[in-house]
Amino acid sequence: MPPPLSASAPSDADDAPASVRRPPRRLTLSYELFPPRSDVQARTLPDTIERLAATGPDFVSVTYGAAGPRRATTTELLRFLVDQTPLRPLAHLTCVGNTEEQLREIIDEFLSAGVRGILAIRGDIPDGLGWPPPGALRYGHHLVRLIREVEAERAIELAAGRVSIGVAAYPNGHPDSPGPRHDIDVLLAKQRAGADLAISQQFYAPGEYLALLRRAELAGVRLPILPGIMPLTEPGRILKLSRLAQIEPPAALLHELELARDETERHRLGVAATVRLIRAVLHEGAPGLHLYTFNNHRAALDVLDELGWPSAA
Asked: pLDDT tens digits, residue range 66-122?
């Protein structure tokens, strides 16, 4: 894992500081990958994995397909990461789409494959689905508790090892939340259930993430909350993610990207905007960085290179 970045500290985090503050501290690095959804993606993903692995991340999260061929592809990718790479996967698992019995089976499947990290989330509820259906877990903290139960049942097999459990955090609020206080109460419930860390949803302004950190700390949340950030190089992806997350897209940045002369300039502008955002939150105490890669190693590595992350190639 690379050592922390360091240099002089700026006065205002929202002004896109040039570096992170002293004294130096260890920063974690992680990525999100998703299982290939086409033959082309299946052919290119191993190269992406190899290039990202060279940066020495602490873990890689792997998005989850709840059923059918996507579930099988997820398990296949997890086994590949465990058996053939130095990477440690954090496997996504959602309440939505599974009964409690099915979730137990999937957790067992993950552990048998050598997975020792799970990201426990409720998941998005499809339109028209009555929630919760019979036999389903209602919230993410229920899933955290279930993982701990399965872990305890397999304690001897795991040599008393502990499964690392991640959860989601929402700088701009969960779409179903009545307000910021409720979001923090939910995070506290996940902590009490046995979560180890949280990863934030995408945000576009440093103050959104930093306000979440302050609210969480004041309420007694002790989980490290990693900033989840997507390289802001593709306008279409920014708009799509913003719609899915129900957050406002960065209008000024989108306008700047649209005015770019060509793809090379657009990429450069997007990387620069991403680096400003990351430096701002690192300066104010973010414990590391979680990059939503969308299986695009180029953008992720360019961001790390511009940050001066020591292990970036």
From this structure: 554 567 888 899 999 999 999 999 999 998 878 899 999 999 999 999 999 999 998
Q: Is 256 a catalytic residue?
A: no
Residue 248: count of CB within 10 angstroms of its CB? 10
pTM over 0.70: yes
Of the residues 32, 208, 234, 284, only one is catalytic, namely 32
CA 167 – CA 187 distance, rounded (Å): 8
